[in-house]
Amino acid sequence: MFRVVHTADWHLGKSMFGRRLISDQRWVLEQLLVHVGEHRVDLVVVAGDVFDRSIPPLEALQLFDEVMQRLVNLGATVVIISGNHDSSERLGYASRFLKLSGVHVITQGPEHQWAPLVLKNSDLVVNVFPLPYQEPQWHWSSTNEGAAAAPQGTVQDPLLSWLEQLSLELPQSSRDFNLAVSHCFVSGGSECDSERVLGPLAVGGLGQFSADAFAAFDYAALGHLHSPQKLCGGKVRYSGSLLKYSFSEVHQKKGFWSLLITPGSAGERPTFCADFVPFSPWRDVRVVEGTLEELLAAGESAAAVGESAGLSKASVTGASQHEEPLKNGDYLLARVTDKELILDLISTLRRVYPNILHIERPYFEVQRARQTLPSQEISRVGSELRLFESFVRTVTNTPQEEALPSGFSQVFAEALDEVRRGEEA
Ligand SMILES: [Mn+2]
Fold it and tell me: How would DSSP label each residue in 363-380?
């Protein structure tokens, strides 16, 4: 028997709407470490996008360092490849002596160091083929003396070439289990908002290929798509990201795959079963919708019963999937449905929901799309009153004659006078 944890897309150091998520990342990685310890996991695979950017913040490096040290202490072998968010040079720093501790960081393709990582125990040989992400362009320029030299129509993802070659050479004994690790976009996979398009050439389907390219392997541990999913009869899987990294992911459950590989009987190939182990996040990412009054009431009742309660009139998106009640501390996108302008909306909501990240006003979005204020109109406006009137018409979608109540111009002129006197003083 051999146990593998397949995870990917940690994006350490990521922020959402300016909020640093490092403590949330630490929270779920702790759960991964507990699983590795309790199940005596032999191999942990991180299929790319370890960091969110090529130069990660210090706190991201520190968390990575801590997690690696603990995995090594737990006796697990670790295989990490670079993803499209990682700098392969920086992630590969120190990899030659990290591997002495059983942490294998692979950031260069098989043309540089072709050899699977072979992990053996008494009844199985697990051959790991790490295939780090590489820009198609990079491949041309290194092989064809510059991208310009690549003839039209011969462009191929380097990964596909590697896979074709490797597929012919895979060991096929009853003890061999062939595990590919890759960061790529296989067609048929479903996307969300927090993945970055793969490379400048990825438009129009280039950089995408069929999951069948991995068919010769026993398992392909993939990274890049942020929702957990399985393809090709379950032997090609994405683990998904550590956390919900955009509001398009509120319905997803994040976690990792836990594989148990068992030797085949009577000369058969080894088999595996894989369970999805969900994380329970510290702060969930949710979308709430309702009037300000409804949202505040819902938040206050949630606070009153110790951070959790169902919402009455306001609706929570993301609740139906995993039955978790809204918590005041969740990361929220609030869709505030009132039709009036409300001053200081975010600070009012923040008193009840301290981690609100973003507000949408659906009513005004519709109005804005329907009736935008032409810029010439602004420049033609002769007085502050006309400008203000245009503004009121724009945001309330009211015809000109009803936009301002009668007698308003007098009040407005007096207020303006007062402001001017104040400025002069
Ligand atoms: Mn990613």
Answer: HHHHHHHH----HHHHHH
